Amino acid sequence: MTVTTSELARTAEILSRPVALNGLTVPNRIAMAPMTRMFSPNGVPGEDVRSYYARRAAAGVGLIVTEGTYVGHESAGNSDRVPRFHGEEQLAGWAQVAADVHAAGGTIVPQLWHIGMVRNQGEPPFADAPAVGPSGIGVDGTEGVGKAMTQADLDDVIGAFAEAAAAAERIGFDGVELHGAHGYLLDQFFWAGSNRREDAYGGDPVARTRFAAEIVAAVRAVVSPEFPVILRYSQWKQQDYRARLADTPQELEAILAPLVAAGVDAFHASTRRYWLPEFDGSDLNLAGWTKKLTGLPTITVGSVGLDGDFLRAFTGEGAELGSIDNLLDRMERDEFDMVAVGRALLQDPEWAAKVLAGRTDELKPYDATALKTLS
Ligand SMILES: Cc1cc2nc3c(=O)[nH]c(=O)nc-3n(C[C@H](O)[C@H](O)[C@H](O)COP(=O)(O)O)c2cc1C
């Protein structure tokens, strides 16, 4: 793919504009999407993780959203190689990551994560910890395989998110992203398929947002007013790609409003293909609708620069290069504010620099072997 001078000027103009997320000014519109990499033994991000992120910041990524990192609750995860966002050694490792990204000219937020019922008891890092979720229903729909969370459990998890957010600000991160997407704990509350509670945390869509809204409010209460709190959410679930939280803009608005009221500063609307309209009768994608309905900055994502969606990455498949014209058209109309790039940035740490400089002939298709190393 060669690029004409006017195409290059347009790309640079659209993607190089700074953008404000609450008190943070991100130097451009390109974010790195959060991607679990499992290169942090004992939950500690080390030297290789630092240079992995710093390399991308140095090559034009304005905002790094880190891989999902577990909050300090023993049931939060299921791997000893996923970084944790609690514990002295773990946070010292993260502080270095943030410092290196800043030195490279980027900004960085950790993605705070609790996997809920995706966990199976017996798995690391805390083998005895039960799987917990809104109703104890397994990801395959089996009832009774985990613990339906008590009020004390809810309070513990809310506290763990708040503590992690406070730590993020203390050790030099620029904000936090709360992982409310893809069928993990917060999303298990959002979705009627996994939330059968009959108390104040279950029932209609607004009641199902209550847990996440309380987390947002608790986070907001412990960080500075200007510290950005981003919420990532999705319609699709890992266990059900066709699941939807909202079938109409009105339903979406009802879900988002309490989250905005609780203090979300920006939404990261996770879709698998950014060019697909979310609802009938409009070309807007999920991030576009989220911005229109909330007035807040939004981040889009999904197969940017590639032609096939990311689930294929997990079956070892690659993806061909795709044009970003449609993305630029949408950004020119301010449909959304930022774009997160996943696999294309895994494949090539210099993806952003190459796109911004028109060196697109140097881009290579996504090859799933990129997952094997942290380069
Ligand atoms: C290897 C891999 C790990 C991922 N891990 C996470 C994660 O920890 N948190 C998350 O919200 N999304 C995760 N995702 C989804 C990405 O953030 C992104 O939404 C998805 O890859 C689509 O973007 P892409 O088409 O540009 O790759 C992961 C994706 C990949 C390929």
Automatic annotation (TrEMBL):
Keyword Transferase applies: no
Superkingdom of origin: Bacteria
Keywords associated with the record: Flavoprotein, Oxidoreductase
GO function terms (MF aspect): FMN binding; oxidoreductase activity
Domain NADH:flavin oxidoreductase/NADH oxidase N-terminal, residue spans: 17-362
Entry keyword annotation includes Plastid: no
A Pfam short name: Oxidored_FMN
Transmembrane segments: none
SUPFAM superfamilies named in the record: FMN-linked oxidoreductases
Name of the protein in its database record: 2,4-dienoyl-CoA reductase-like NADH-dependent reductase (Old Yellow Enzyme family)
Organism name: Nocardia neocaledoniensis
